[in-house]
Structures
1.
Amino acid sequence: MTQSNIPNRCSSAAGSGIKPLRYANGVLQMLDQRLLPTEETWLEYRTYQEVAEAIRSMVVRGAPAIGCAAAFGVWFGARDIETESMDEFMAQLDSICDHLGATRPTAVNLFWALDRMRNFARCHTDRPVFQIKIALEYEALAIAEEDDRLNKSLGRHGQELIADGNRVLTHCNAGALATGGYGTALGVIRAAVAAGKQVAVIADETRPFLQGSRLTAWELQRDNIPVTLICDNMAGYLMSKGEIDCCIVGADRIAANGDVANKIGTYTVAVLAKEHGIPFYVAAPTSTIDLSLSDGSLIPIEERDQREVTHQGEKQLAPAGIMVRNPAFDVTPARLVTAIITENGIAEGNYLVNLSALVGGGR
Ligand code: MRU
């Protein structure tokens, strides 16, 4: 992995060219999201092991963006396999996918992208190995480009739910930085702005990794979309004062019954929204819907390093040796979710029926 400081400044209202990944000439560049908003540093990746480490260490994060990065990881791994035997090639490809899949457990888009790359190879085993390698590069590019396109479609559906003048609370970062481009929750906001609506965003800072203050605030400010930053524990007060009209968040995995795993703190926002009679929307591509899980209790929840809670950079915020929990995600029960917005339309009510219809419509 090497470092380059290529500028990525292209700010425009409601449709910025912000992307977390750039690919050219066999090299993947990732904007190091750990350093935002104060440093824009692009890192270069050429091997699947490097890509796996970037996902694990959160250089790239956000469910769809993790999937896109992993797809390039599979291509790098395939490129370096030295065999002409199809059986041997497929066996090594499986272990590359397993390595990439062991990085983060909650976002299903990671496993969706790995399965898509692996199945693509499986479907073409009548071809010579070198041809499959070439095709896998195009498949990785297709996954990233499709995600950007799907988010724009998701945004067009979702913006119908936003009224002119709405003040919208979001949690974590479900924006361009978290996807192949444009964003899911922030894609809905961008589409509403593009449709001529005045929208003001309230961004939860999102302890402990601060995706809200570091990333959501950064990308909305670049797009000139009004954004006000709050600490996570201020949301209830603003709701009680009538200062929030609706909430929109992304998702890392949605079970068949509509239960939603998303960044820790999402559940709290959903409970508060219910108490105050405020709509709570989830925006996610159908690749985030996991119909193999009947409900959210089956979604694996990642627990991250204690240091994310006890330290801010090098600064210690808690006594040494304190006991810490750091679950990175929580599950919001479907009953608290007003609607789920996808690229194929909006599901409401009976998610068991309506979500599978949307997934079926998209594949
Ligand atoms: O730990 P992260 O930053 O990868 O978590 C990201 C989130 O929880 C996002 O809300 C989710 O992935 C949706 S991104 C479109």
2.
Amino acid sequence: MDLPDYAIEATGLFKTYPASKTAPAMDALKGVDLKIPRGSIFGLLGPNGAGKSTFINILSGLTKKTRGQVKIWGRDIDTQARDARAAIGVVPQEIAADPFFTPRESLEVQAGLYGVPAAERRSDQLLAALGLADKSKAYVRQLSGGMKRRLMVAKAMVHNPPVLILDEPTAGVDVELRRQLWNYVVELNRQGVTIVLTTHYLEEAEQLCDTIAIVNRGQVVACEPTSQLLRRLDSRTVVVTPETPLAEAPSLKPFEARLRPGGDLAVDFKTAEAGVEQVLAAVRAAGVHIKDLRTEDPDLEDVFVSMTYGLEATATD
Ligand code: ADP
């Protein structure tokens, strides 16, 4: 079969969780269209509750979609379920390592589940690649959280899938291990594996992903190359504590200044258009003496919301 253009293709995907005794029905996905190009490191970014895990769980077969079409590596998850599942490895959000197996046994069992013949298993190679070679015979319950997570990554790769999905891969992973994990992910990508990762940290998506889709409230509100997306998120804020309290925010043309509760003065600027120096010059020119200052990145929550409103506005145009 020819290689597909898209590792994953979702069209008109809906998911409604039925009402329970404690909660009303929940529309977790509301018409998601998403094309994940083959060969990319693709970030699915969105706040908690956006629908990221629901999307991933539909791909892995843990959750049934309500409606819509999904293809994994060109294979329809309804009509070619087995082939579709064989094409992805999923590293789940929760660590579910079997405490009674050693990491090596754990990989062998997983390979068995996927029907990988013994001669084609790569358990030792995977353990080495993830820095677990010296733990191959330890009990899983003796591993640290970061090691368990890396074991989950190894497990997801036993059947050598062309697509690897990581759901919040670095939650609870310390800086050093995170770097190791990323190196491995990047190396896999170099070898041709398409990587999809979900995160609610822009920084993580920014550093790793070539393409980012932003999901909010069950909808894709942006999907574009990382650099293009970052240009749209380029606003920053300078926050100044004045020497003496200000009665009101001064006019700082061309900047917009707001007085915050507590007396700090917040000034937004576009990094493409101005620098901190220019903002400070405007503050000083307005006669404000600066006691202290800091800069702030945009609050992602605000960005998600503003993009969602943008979408709603276009939808009604
Ligand atoms: P994310 O991964 O982006 O944090 P989720 O896909 O976990 O988002 O959740 C999307 C929405 O669906 C949330 O409002 C969540 O409470 C709801 N949800 C998720 N799983 C279930 C479930 N099994 N039953 C009912 N509601 C659920």
